[in-house]
UniProtKB/TrEMBL annotation, chain A:
This is ABC transporter ATP-binding component. InterPro entries: AAA+_ATPase, ABC_transporter-like_ATP-bd, ABC_transporter-like_CS, ABC_transporter_ATP-bind, P-loop_NTPase. It holds the Pfam family ABC_tran. Its main location: membrane. It comes from Weissella minor. SMART domains: AAA. It is a peripheral membrane protein.
TrEMBL record, chain B:
Pfam families: BPD_transp_2. The keyword Ribonucleoprotein does not apply. Keywords: Cell membrane, Membrane, Transmembrane, Transmembrane helix. This is ABC superfamily ATP binding cassette transporter, membrane protein. Its main location: membrane. The lineage of its organism: Bacteria, Bacillati, Bacillota, Bacilli, Lactobacillales. It is found in: Cell membrane. GO terms for molecular function: transmembrane transporter activity. PANTHER family: ABC TRANSPORTER PERMEASE PROTEIN YPHD-RELATED-RELATED, BRANCHED-CHAIN AMINO ACID TRANSPORT SYSTEM, PERMEASE PROTEIN.
Length: 256, 294
C-alpha cells in the first residue's frame, strides 16, 4: 500500500487523563487517505476536526494508536520533523505569514519548508523574483505587484492567498487546510476557495480541508468526512458524494 | 571639539550593545536582561586576560565568547527550562555577578600601563580621542556589516521569522528554540565585545559597570528610531542604532556641561529613554489634536 498518503490506526487522544475531567477527544479513528484525494471535513464544534488536524501535523501527541505519512511512521515525530512531508494553512490570516517580512521573503522562506537553513545567502535574485511574481500572479489578486510589501500590510485575502502559495510552493505530500477561507468576506472567500480547488487539481495534491460551509464541502473535493464526538460519523466518496444534497447534510446534522 | 570627538568615540564603542540588544529586543521581541551581566563579563574577561599577558585582540575575542556563553545559558533556561524570559535574564545576570568577581579576583581591575587595543603604536600619531574613534569605527563597521549579511542568509531569515511569527516558523520546519538560543548567543557576544572595548578604553573593569547598561542599549535603539522614523531596510536600521548611540553620548555630554554631575547620569539616562519611548505616541496624539484645532 504505497499509494496512501496518510494512515491513522486507532488514533486516540485523551485529555486530562486520570482526573474527573477525563475526556476522549479523538476516539480510535481509523482513516486512510489515498494520494490525490481531496477530502473535506465537516463537523460541529468540538467534534474533533481540529484535534484530527493537530494530531496529523504533530502539534498534539496521540495517547494511543499510530500515524503514517506515506510509508513513514510519524507517530513519534515532532511537528517540525513532519514539515518536509506536510504543509498547513491556518484559519487566521495572522498565523500563516511573517508580518514584518515582505511577500518575497515569506515565499523564499517557505521554499525551504522542512529543510535545513544554511548560512548561505537567501538568494533573492532578479530571476528568483521574476519566478515568484509568476507564481504569485496565479492568485490574481495583485499579490504579484506587492512582492516587496511587508505582509502585515496586505489585505486578509492577500495574506491567505500568500499562505496558500507558501504551503504549496514546495510540493507537500499532504496539505492541511484548516478553515482557511473562514475569516474572509464572502466574495474573497469564494475566490480563494475556487483558486484552492483549481491549484489542488492542477498540481494533483493530496489535501484535507476543514470547513463549516456545507455547500463548499459538497461542491469541492472528491471525498467527505463528517466528524462527531471524536469519531468519523460519515465517510463518502466518488459518485456517492456527488449525489449528496444540502438537504441530506442538514438532515444528517440534525440527527447528531 | 575634544568633547565632541570623545562623544563620537564613546558612542561608537557602546554601539555594539545597541546592535546586540536590537537582535533580541526588536527581532525576537523580548527584553533580555542578561545584558547587565554580559557587559561586565566581557570587560572582566578581557581585562584579566590582558593583565595575564594575552594580546588585547585575543582577549577581546574571548570577552565576546564569554558573552555568547552567557546568552546560551539564558537561552537554555528560556527554551528548554520554560523560565519566563525576563526571569531567565535576571537569573543569568545575577549569577554572572559572582562569576565576574571570580574572574577578576577583586571588584575591579586596572589596566594601568598595560597594552590595550587603543595603545597600539600605529595609533600613536593620532591626536587625543581619535584612536578611540578609529578603533570604534573599525569594530562597528565589521559588526554592522556581518550582522546585515547574516540576516540575509537562510539562517538569518529563519531567525527573523522566529521573532515575527513562531507558529508559522515551526510549520515551515524552523526550529524556533534553536533560533532563539542562537539569537541570544550572538546578541550577548556583541554585548561582551562592547564590554571589552569600553573597559580597555576606560583602563579598568569594574564588577558594577553593568548597572543600567540595558537602558543605554535601549536608548540607542529608540533614539535611532525616533530620529529616523521612516520605513527602513534592516541594514539601515542597524546603522540608525549606531547613530542613536552617538546621539545618546552627545546628550550625556550636554547634561554634564549643564552642571549635573556623574552621579546623576543613571537618572538622566532613564529620563532620556523614557522620553524617547513616549515621544512617538505623544507626538501622534499631539498632531491629531493640532489637526482638529486647525
Amino acid at each position: 500500500m504505497t499509494t496512501s498518503s496518510l494512515r491513522l490506526e486507532n488514533a486516540t487522544v485523551v485529555v486530562n487523563q486520570g482526573t474527573s475531567e477525563e475526556k476522549t477527544i479523538l476516539d480510535a479513528v481509523n482513516l486512510e487517505v489515498q494520494a490525490g484525494e481531496f477530502v473535506t471535513v465537516l463537523g460541529s464544534n468540538g467534534a474533533g476536526k481540529s484535534t484530527l488536524f493537530n494530531v496529523i501535523a504533530g502539534t498534539l501527541n496521540l495517547t494511543s494508536g499510530k500515524i503514517y505519512l506515506g510509508d513513514t511512521d510519524v507517530t513519534h515525530l515532532k511537528e517540525i520533523e513532519r514539515t518536509h512531508i506536510l504543509a498547513r494553512v491556518f484559519q487566521d490570516p495572522k498565523l500563516g505569514t511573517a508580518p514584518r517580512m515582505t511577500v518575497a521573503e515569506n515565499l523564499l522562506m517557505a521554499e525551504r519548508r522542512g529543510q535545513k537553513r544554511r548560512l548561505k545567502s537567501r538568494g533573492l535574485t532578479t530571476e528568483k523574483r521574476a519566478e515568484m511574481a509568476q507564481v504569485a500572479d496565479k492568485m490574481g489578486n495583485g499579490l504579484a505587484q506587492r512582492l516587496d510589501v511587508a505582509t502585515g500590510q496586505l489585505s486578509g485575502g492577500q495574506r491567505q492567498a500568500l499562505a496558500f502559495l507558501m504551503a504549496t510552493e514546495k510540493r507537500p505530500e499532504l496539505l492541511l487546510l484548516d478553515e482557511h477561507t473562514a475569516a474572509l468576506d464572502p466574495k474573497t472567500s469564494a475566490q480563494l476557495m475556487a483558486l484552492t480547488d483549481e491549484q489542488i487539481k492542477a498540481q494533483q495534491l493530496t489535501a484535507m480541508m476543514i470547513t463549516h460551509n456545507l455547500s463548499d464541502a459538497l461542491q469541492y473535493g472528491n471525498r467527505l468526512l463528517v466528524m462527531s464526538e471524536g469519531k468519523i460519523a460519515m465517510d463518502v466518496d466518488g459518485t456517492a458524494k456527488q449525489a449528496l444534497t444540502l438537504e441530506d447534510m442538514l438532515a444528517f446534522f440534525n440527527r447528531y | 571639539m575634544e568633547i565632541l570627538v570623545s562623544a563620537i568615540g564613546q558612542g561608537l564603542l557602546w554601539a555594539p550593545l545597541g546592535i546586540g540588544l536590537y537582535l533580541t529586543f526588536r527581532i525576537l521581541n523580548f527584553p533580555d536582561m542578561t545584558v547587565e551581566g554580559t557587559f561586565p563579563l566581557g570587560a572582566a574577561v578581557a581585562v584579566t586576560m590582558i593583565s595575564n599577558g594575552v594580546t588585547p585582540f585575543i582577549a577581546t575575542l574571548c570577552g565576546m565568547l564569554a558573552g555568547s556563553l552567557a546568552g546560551l545559558v539564558t537561552g537554555l533556561l528560556y527554551t528548554k527550562g520554560k523560565v519566563p524570559i525576563l526571569l531567565a535574564g535576571i537569573l543569568s545576570m545575577t549569577a554572572i555577578y559572582s562569576i565576574n568577581l571570580r574572574i577578576m579576583g577583586q571588584a575591579n581591575r586596572s589596566l594601568l600601563d598595560l597594552p590595550t587595543l587603543f595603545s597600539s603604536s600605529l595609533l600613536d600619531f593620532l591626536p587625543k580621542n581619535f584612536p578611540m574613534v578609529l578603533v570604534g569605527l573599525i569594530f562597528i563597521t565589521v559588526i554592522v556589516g556581518l550582522t546585515a549579511l547574516f540576516l540575509k542568509t537562510e539562517l538569518g531569515q529563519a531567525f527573523i521569522a522566529t521573532g515575527d511569527n513562531a507558529n508559522m516558523s515551526r510549520s515551515l520546519g524552523i526550529n524556533t528554540d534553536n533560533m532563539t538560543i542562537m539569537g541570544l548567543m550572538i546578541s550577548n557576544a556583541l554585548i561582551g565585545l562592547g564590554g571589552a572595548l569600553v573597559a580597555q578604553n576606560n583602563g579598568f573593569a569594574d564588577v558594577n559597570m553593568g548597572i543600567g547598561t540595558i537602558v543605554v542599549a535601549l536608548a540607542s535603539i529608540i533614539i535611532g528610531e525616533v530620529v529616523y522614523s521612516d520605513q527602513m531596510t534592516l541594514t539601515e536600521r542597524l546603522i540608525t542604532v549606531v547613530i542613536g548611540s552617538i546621539i545618546y553620548r552627545f546628550v550625556l555630554v550636554i547634561v554634564l556641561e549643564v552642571g549635573f554631575n556623574a552621579d546623576d547620569l543613571k537618572l538622566v539616562s532613564a529620563v532620556i529613554l523614557g522620553l524617547a519611548l513616549m515621544l512617538p505616541n505623544v507626538g501622534k496624539r499631539l498632531s491629531i489634536k493640532l489637526k482638529k484645532e486647525a
